[in-house]
Amino acid sequence: MNSKLNWLKLSPPQILALGFAAAILVGTLLLMLPVSSRTGEPIAWIDAMFTAASAVCLTGLVVVDTGTSFSAFGHTVILLLIQLSGLGFMTMATLFALVFKRRISLKDRLVLQEAMNQSSIEGIVRLIRRVFIYSLTFEACGALLFTLRWAWDMPIGKAIYFGLFHSVSLFNNAGFDLFGDFHSFTGYVDDPLVNIVSMLLIISGGIGFVVLSDLIDFRQKRKLSLHSKVVLSMSGSLIFIGAVIIFIFEFTNPLTLGSLDGGGKVLASFFQSVSPRTAGVNSIDIGGLRQATQFFIIILMFIGASPGSTGGGIKTTTFMVMVGAVFAMMRGRDDIVMFRYRLAQERVLKALTIALLALLLVLTVSMILSTTEDADFLEILFETTSAFGTVGLSMGLTPDLTVLGKILISLTMFAGRLGPLTLAYALGPKKGKELYRYPEGKMIIG
């Protein structure tokens, strides 16, 4: 009875944090089993924990190569962790409850609201049904198209296996691949079908289920919500601007785009612009990019995907609100207006809080790693930002991390998956409403 009361006293952020931690623990134990290893020898606990954390946090950073180190059983464990985290363990619990016609309690709805990053619980159960349907539909279509393409390169059984694994991994922005030797998608850098299907899966999973629902209902409603408009406009802008900048910076680089023809350069530029939106796969060598491109990708990874999606980062809407606040201040306006809607002051403060907490986390972990790891600071900053944004891209540092480095990066992935603000709510004590306000003070800014 007491344990049940203690569980009920947990806040939604705390329930989410415990749920993800439990999934990582179970995944670690399963990946440590000899049957999970291709050689039959158990994988070291730190490597199993890192891989499980990367899968649950939908990151894709790996200290051992997924394709060559794990058996089919290990791949299945990783795939299930990705799918469970992508859908959300509360989503799965809700679906089981609906199947068995159980009532969804208010507490469950509040946790779902936190997990899906929604502003209210209205329509949350209906959204959960759509999340399940949309996920399976996109993953099935991606798996079919990948299977048809790879059936030309490998036996049909392996093509189906690869098609399913990579479709689930890409839609959930997980970044895991089975091609071996840390090559990712570099073998298909100029393949139109693989590139286009991959980018569509990444973008679909990264814009969020609310936006997908809005787009699918557009034919009936003939309008989009403010959230969907902001997400689509910002996502499209970041992808296009990112592709142009990568194309310009890497055009003559013989290690990346220089050896490709015109069409290959365009495909690779767009693919590498889409991937930092927390997908974590690469079709060109990240370590071979020029430093300016690497730093630009760090910015893209820090921004990340959109709320209610399978991606991480501070989110596109947070970045858009901050940009809107800057322009409003420069124009001397009191309100931030987007698509003829005024944003509440609370939205601005939340965006600023998320961005500052995320920046503090990334800089702190980077400074610590700079003392524990033998690598350049840009390489460390890239790794840390990739972990926080749950991206999975690396300049090659991940396999060489020390034990302390692996633990720090795992914790950073965990913080990035939950979100810095949700993690702060989970760790901080619950406070009641303030019954008084202090007198207003004035200070000089800027």
TrEMBL record:
Superkingdom, taxonomy of origin: Bacteria
Membrane topology designation: Multi-pass membrane protein
InterPro entries linked: Cat_transpt, TrkH
Protein keywords: Cell membrane, Ion transport, Membrane, Potassium, Potassium transport, Transmembrane, Transmembrane helix, Transport
Keyword Ion transport attributed: yes
Presence of keyword Coiled coil: no
Pfam family, one: TrkH
Localization per record: Cell membrane
Main location group: membrane
Ranges annotated as spanning the membrane: 15-33, 45-64, 76-100, 131-152, 196-218, 230-249, 295-328, 348-369, 403-427
UniProt name for this protein: Trk family potassium uptake protein
Organism: Paenibacillus ihbetae
Taxonomic classification: Bacteria, Bacillati, Bacillota, Bacilli, Bacillales
